[in-house]
Design a protein that fits this description.
- It contains 1 helix and 20 strands.
- The chain is mainly β.
Length: 287
C-alpha cells in the first residue's frame, strides 16, 4: 500500500507567484437544450470528439466544429441514460440524487469511470453506455459534506484511477487511488488554497495532474482557475486564474495534445437552467 502526506502548500509556495502559462484561445457559448448540466468531460486525442456526463444522469457524445484551432460549434450526436448497477437509468431515481454524475475518466481501452456526488460513489463501465459495475466505497466517502463530495475523476498514464472531492477533509483534499485489489486508498492529501474547490481533473502524458478549481464569490460570481500538481509532491502551481464572473460555472476539464502542444478544454455546468449557456473554454499551454 502506498501512502504519503503531501505538504505542497509549504514546499512550493513560490510557484504561485509565477506568470500565467495558459493562453486562452477560444470560448464557445451554446444556448442549446441538448447541452444541460454538463459536469465531466473527455475530449478525443484529435480534439474533435467529446464524451460528457451530466448531473441529471446522462451520457452526452458529440463533436466540435473547428476552424483551425478555434471552436466554432458543437453538436450532441447521442444522448443516453447512465445505467446503474441494477440495470435501470439513474435519472429515473431523483430521490437522494443518485443521478448526480460529476467526474468522468475514460481509459484508452474505453473503460469509463464516473464519480457521483451526494450518494458518494464511483462506478466502472466496460464502455460508455454499458451497465455500471460496483466498486466498494472508501469509508471516508461519507465524511464529506452534502453536495461537496466526489467531483473529479482522472486516470494517470499508467492506468491508475484517482478521484477527488469538491471540498477537503481536515487534512486536505484526499487523493483517492483505486488499487489493483479494487479498493480505494488515500495516497495523501492536496492542500486547499484560497478556498477554491476541486471540480475537475485530468492527467497529461507526462504525469502532471491538471485540476480545475472554482469558487463562488459573495454568492454572485464564479471564479475559476487551473492548478497543476505532481502527486509525488514536486509541483503545485497555479497556471491561470480567471476574473470574477469572467466565465460561467466551469466544472469539467480535458487535457489533450495537438501538433503545437498541450491544450485544455473546459466546460461549464448550467444546471439545466434556461437562458444560461453551456460554455466551452480552451487554453494552450505556453511554457
Amino acid at each position: 500500500m502506498r501512502t504519503r502526506t503531501l505538504s505542497l502548500s509549504l514546499l512550493l509556495w513560490p510557484f504561485v507567484a509565477q506568470a500565467q502559462t495558459l493562453e486562452p484561445i477560444g470560448v464557445l457559448a451554446l444556448e442549446d437544450e441538448t447541452f444541460f448540466g454538463v459536469s465531466g468531460l473527455e475530449v478525443s486525442d484529435d480534439g474533435n470528439l467529446f464524451t460528457a456526463v451530466t448531473d441529471r444522469g446522462w451520457w452526452l457524445q458529440g463533436r466540435f466544429d473547428r476552424r483551425g484551432e478555434i471552436m466554432t460549434g458543437a453538436t450532441v450526436e447521442t444522448i443516453e441514460p447512465i445505467i446503474g448497477q441494477n440495470g435501470f437509468p439513474v435519472s429515473a431515481r431523483r430521490s437522494g440524487d443518485w443521478s448526480d454524475a460529476e467526474g468522468l475518466a475514460i481509459a484508452p481501452d474505453g473503460t469509463a469511470y464516473v464519480s457521483f456526488e451526494r450518494w458518494a460513489h464511483v462506478w466502472r463501465f466496460d464502455q460508455v453506455h454499458s451497465q455500471a459495475e460496483w466498486i466498494k466505497d472508501h469509508p471516508t466517502f461519507y465524511d464529506h459534506a452534502e453536495n461537496w463530495q466526489l467531483e473529479a475523476a482522472a486516470i494517470d498514464p499508467d492506468g491508475t484511477v484517482y478521484v477527488f472531492s469538491e471540498k477537503p477533509l481536515l487534512d486536505g483534499f484526499p487523493i483517492y487511488r483505486l488499487g489493483e485489489d479494487g479498493l480505494w486508498t488515500i495516497d495523501g492529501y492536496l492542500p486547499e488554497q484560497d478556498v477554491f474547490a476541486i471540480v475537475g481533473a485530468d492527467f497529461a502524458q507526462d504525469g502532471s495532474l491538471y485540476l480545475l478549481e472554482r469558487k463562488l464569490v459573495v454568492g454572485l460570481w464564479w471564479q475559476n482557475r487551473v492548478r497543476r500538481v505532481r502527486l509525488d509532491g514536486t509541483e503545485d502551481r497555479i497556471l491561470w486564474t480567471g476574473e470574477r464572473g469572467e466565465y460561467e460555472n466551469l466544472e469539467g476539464i480535458s487535457v489533450w495534445e495537438d501538433e503545437a502542444g498541450l491544450r485544455l478544454t473546459l466546460v461549464s455546468d448550467n444546471n439545466a437552467a434556461k437562458n444560461t449557456p453551456t460554455q466551452f473554454v480552451e487554453f494552450r499551454l505556453t511554457e
